[in-house]
Write a structure and sequence with these properties.
single chain; five-stranded parallel sheet; alpha/beta; globular; 23% strand
Length: 450
Amino acid sequence: MTKVEKPDVLIIGSGPAGGSVARTCAAEGKHVVVADYQPFGGTCPLRGCEPKKFLFDVTNVALRRKHMVDRGLRGDLTIDWEKMMSGMAEMRDPIPSLVEKFYAEHGIVGVHGKAHFTSPDTVVINNQKYQPEKIVIAAGATPREVDFPGHELLTSTDEFFEMKELPSRIVFIGGGFIAFELSNVAAISGAQVDVVLRSDRFLRRFDSSLVDCMIEASRDMGVRFHTMLPPNSLKRDRDELVLCAGEDDIKFRADCVVIAAGRVAHAEALNPKKGQLELNQKGGIKVNEFMQSTSNPRVYAAGDVVGNSMELTPVASMEAMVVASNLLYGNKEKPDYSVVPYTLFTHPPLSSVGLREEQAQAQKISYKIFEGSASGWSEYRRIGELYPSYKIVVSKDDDTILGATINGHNSEEIINIFAFAMRTKTTVADLAKWLWAYPSFGYTIRYMLK
């Protein structure tokens, strides 16, 4: 090995969390090194949020056209899969070089390679030893591994984003965000789609009644859902794949089987034992209230590699700001997870913030519910949406919003309004007095709270 490098801060991971810490520390004059074994930029812009949202926006136009046939829209509108995917790639592919250019311009040293601890204060990357003053782990998460006969024939979600041709028949294994979002994209684009889940309930982070509404909308697109069917085996039969699942070995014949069974913190590959890093119940880096390792004070962590809250880009960015501040000025800042809005970009989007009713019940909170279908409202009737719905949890004690779930067009923006109301402790009575542009989807809040 060459001589030991001793930067002020070594950051493992170049995604939204690692990048944010790097920028902040470099701006304060710190010598910063960022290491990543994958292209710089992280999962969100390269293999997750951004490319997924591109596909959502294109397929949403095609679906809206279908809904508008009865409203006078004429002419065929179909998805050119190859062109859609190349358009997505044109937006995505320049990102790593842009990140590297930014690093170079701001004095941040970028290193390509896998990092692992050899001692509590030493990290090795490409046979180069680093003994920084502080270490930030922002390594994100990796796809959950599965182990059944034929698993090597599976297509990863990363590989899905590289498909130049759309398979005629696709099976998605999993019932979380990415399985639902990509199944919608594939179905609208013309594939026959099945979603196979090992348990009995999809999307546990959302209110089950609104999940049911979203599933009905997906079924209208042709997506078929199957529960209580853990995968047993996958094999190739001539020019097709055969997935066997469940106690009865139910067979699904497909051209492509995508594994979308979630992601786990990318911690084990870092050799946490050598780094004296304690892991939490989710397998992520265990941190204290200041995002500092509970067992190695030299180390801080942020983002999906922690796994304390939801695996969301805004959460990772917020945690990164906390880490950067505490690195620079001492442990004073703490993350705030009290109001975290999130959206499943299906067609239509399903969005939520705060408590679900079942959580309010479990916490023995005195609450009331505003809920119902929005299918009769003009905002949704004019775009032909059949299953819009909402459920708002309100405190009986002070009339403030405790949580909201919305299934419908523009729900990702409406939920931000509810999140703002929660942060400002705005009461339902006051919220109902606010003036909204009309006829907008934000205006529907007035209907929800009647």
